[in-house]
Amino acid sequence: MKTFAVAFAVLFMSSVLQAQSLTTDQAKAHEGENATVCGKVASERTATSSRGEPTFINLDSAYPRQVFTILGWGDDRKNVGELPRVGSHLCVKGQITDYHRVPEIVVRSSGQLSK
Fold first, then answer.
1. Are strands 69-72 and 89-95 parallel, antiparallel or unpaired?
2. What is the distance between the alpha carbons of residues 72 and 61, in angstroms, rounded to a whole number?
């Protein structure tokens, strides 16, 4: 019975932690984890001349002082849908990775984004 109670407590706490969202400043401490990160869209740019046509959406601080980036590849654009406007509030779900000391989440579908 104790094993069940411990397993239930672990499952419950893990679902509570997944439901919480992180700020862009907190994201760096959670690299490698699946999480939701929320912030204000500070800049957005699609590198149309780069391989894969990546789109970079920076939350809370614009490039080159970005603190968190959402990366979307050109091939996934149709699955992601309309991009948010600068100034709007946005949350993204996914695995936090590090790219040149800036935490980011790669977005592949609209289900990863919410306002």
1. unpaired
2. 18
Tokens describing residue 70: 């959402």
- Number of domains observed in the structure of the chain: 1
Provide the CATH number for the domain around residue 95. 2.40.50.140
Chain centroid to CA 102: how far? 12
Residue 47 lies in a domain: yes
- DSSP strand pairing (55-59 vs 34-46): antiparallel
Q: What is the pLDDT of residue 83?
A: 87
Which residues lie closer than 8 Å to 93 by C-beta, 6 or more apart? 34, 35, 36, 105, 111, 112, 113, 114
Which tens digits make up the pLDDT trace of 63-81? 999 999 999 999 999 999 9
The span from the CA of 13 to the CA of 55, in Å, is 34
Asked if residue 83 is part of any domain, the answer here is yes
Q: Give the pTM.
A: 0.82
User: In percent, how much of the chain has pLDDT > 90?
Assistant: 79
